[in-house]
Input
Amino acid sequence: MIRVAALTSGVNVPSSRFRVRQHLSSLEQKGVMVREYSPIMSKYAGFPGIPTDIMALNYLMFPVYACWSSLELALRIQGVLGSWKADLTWLERELFPGCVTWEPFLKRPYLFDVDDSIWINPPFGRSTMIRIARGAEMILAGNQYIADWFSPYSKNVRIVPTAIDTNRFVPQELSKRKSDRPFVIGWTGQSVGFPYIYNIEGYLAQFLKDHDAELWIMADRKPRFQKFLSENVRYFQWSPSSEAEFVREIDVGIMPLLSSEQCRGKCSFKMLQYMSSGVPVLASPVGMNEDILNMGEIGYAIKQEKDWYEALESIYSDRLLGYCMGVEGRKIVEKSFSCNVISSHLSEIFHELV
Output
């Protein structure tokens, strides 16, 4: 049995949940025993009521920021020590945002798991990623863009997509769909992604005005829209237990992005959630989104903002088309992005290294 120490970012941090934790039971069946070391407080948690950037830049608040950061770093020591009891260390992102801290003290070999453009994070994102990558035995990159960025700093880069639990994210039975309800446009994610929705707010608002439709949002807090009527938007508080049910209930899932370095590093997880649930997708063809859109007839690539209305109109007026797109999306996830497929890939990597 191979022993792996997994150092993750937090209990409810998406990268921890979907890059590492959901694979633990499957990996154990494949001869890989993973012990996760997750801090009781997310490494992204700021001081209550005070944004982290304000604490770091305001000289009056800097002592509070320093004490809070020291506490967060202290919480990671258990994982660093635990790595010395394992055969292999699985580091999910850096231990502290944008900085090298305890990484040089990790038991080697270690794998550096990256699923976003975290090299752009302040204060020292780029130099931090280069230093950690050069010390790692292997980089596990969530997509091709990330793999290309790390290639100059590591001779061993593998693309390992973020997996979907196809037993949890399942299509809704046709017999359970209510025919008299409004057409539902859905978006799920963290509130840091709200600006991408705000960018197309006008087109979505016009569509809802012209049709019997609603916009459903699941996130950690409510969005602040300016152009929607309140009765056209429904907010759902995110929770691990309800996210799969939420996606099952929508008629089309959207993933708007910008053509930026940050967005090109995203691993299309929203799209994969929609697809696994048999829901057609409308997405900006940026980075990995474009790669998945090219895999089959799963929805529409929206290249210009004005095209969102037309694409929504197409699926609204032809529900059978949307259903067929959802079926195709589900097949693609089962073949290439399911937990079974990705867990097997990870198991092969761990056995190869150890």
Notes: Residues 174-336 form a domain with the Rossmann fold fold (CATH 3.40.50.2000). The first helix runs from residue 14 to 19. The two ends are 10 Å apart (CA to CA). The mean pLDDT is 93.
